[in-house]
Design a protein that fits this description.
single chain; about 325 residues; alpha/beta; about 40% helix
Length: about 325
């Protein structure tokens, strides 16, 4: 129904972060050791101490060299530190950059956004496939309440200038929490932290009508999928979906199946979405839902229906039994 490039922003699912110092990452990715891995990010920023950065960069080169030999691999990204660091990593990777889907650009705001965008345009010249950017909105400049609306609109202008190269927009929940010395517990969602919720809602107001916006990281994990960490993640995923976030940053492989499951769509939503997108011409623009319990209005629910069908095409429809639907096509 949609072109691959139209679905690509939806294919990230749970973006698994790992420090670029991780020597085992390539082997585990190639052996498909992580169920439901759709996208991976090698971090050279907050997860790496300054003194270890050169070592992390060399490990990254080895990792991408190894993954370049893989027949199948998830979407791959590198998180850099600054525009100048992006230039350094670009030179360091050389031809290995071809295996990347793109770069993750932290603390993206008016102080660095133009430089980042200019570099991505430059690096895309002559490439056979796009090298995307994923800006992260997480800086103090973005958080400030007195100027937030103006800053976000101006940041959007920068991102709009390279819209074709912007895969999605991300938010830094932990960075925003750090500005205020806050942290949610395993039994709370980020939406219960009022000052952070307000920032996230403002970002969604500005960006979600034009871009896929990914939800903030959930920092709890474990081995038991019915433990408190898992229930907390499910609760936050439900609120992510309700508010317009698509996908989520993951910091542990155990989170990936839950995020993937959370991206699947309900059967009734899917049936209603199909009806709305296939609306037959006639006098009426409203009808009863597939389940007979709500109203479908073609003019008001069209964009919702498109989003539901895109998610269904990538992640499937949630089985009514509650068991996760099998889908072998997990790698791009």
């Amino acid at each position: 129904m949609w072109k691959p490039e139209e679905l690509l922003p939806y294919r990230l699912g749970g973006l698994l972060y790992t420090p670029a110092l991780n020597h085992t990452a390539a082997g585990k990715i190639k052996s498909k050791a992580y169920p439901r891995l759709t996208a991976a990010a090698f971090c050279l920023e907050d997860s790496i101490q300054d003194s270890a950065l050169p070592q992390a960069e060399q490990t990254l080169v080895k990792t991408l060299t190894s993954l370049g030999e893989a027949a199948e691999r998830p979407l791959l990204f590198v998180r850099v530190r600054t525009p100048r660091h992006l230039e350094r990593v670009h030179r360091l990777l050389g031809s290995r950059e071809e295996v990347l889907t793109g770069y993750i650009l932290p603390k993206f705001d008016l102080s660095n956004g133009g430089a980042y965008a200019e570099l991505l345009e430059k690096y895309n010249a002559g490439r056979s496939a796009p090298l995307y950017m994923m800006p992260i909105l997480e800086s103090r400049m973005v958080a400030r309440p007195d100027s937030r609306a103006s800053v976000l609109m101006r940041v959007k202008e920068v991102i709009d200038s390279v819209r074709a190269l912007t895969l999605n927009v991300r938010v830094g929940g932990n960075d925003f929490c750090n500005l205020y010395g806050l942290r949610r517990s395993v039994g709370q969602t980020i939406y219960q932290i009022g000052v952070i919720r307000d920032i996230l809602m403002d970002i969604l107001r500005v960006f979600s009508s034009d871009y896929v916006v990914s939800g903030p990281v959930w920092e709890y994990f474990g081995t038991d999928s019915v433990a408190a960490w898992a229930e907390g993640l499910r609760a936050e995923l439900a609120l992510d979906r309700l508010n317009g976030f698509i996908g989520k940053t993951a910091i542990h492989p155990a989170q990936l199946p839950l995020i993937y499951e959370g991206m699947q769509v309900d059967r009734e939503d899917y049936e209603d979405a199909l009806e709305i997108l296939g609306w037959k011409e006639g006098d009426f623009g409203v009808s009863k839902s597939a389940g007979g319990t709500r109203m479908n209005e073609v003019k008001c629910h069209n964009r919702w229906a498109e989003r539901i069908c895109k998610l269904a095409q990538v992640y499937g429809v949630r089985p009514e039994t509650g068991k996760e639907k099998e889908n072998e096509n997990l790698y791009v």
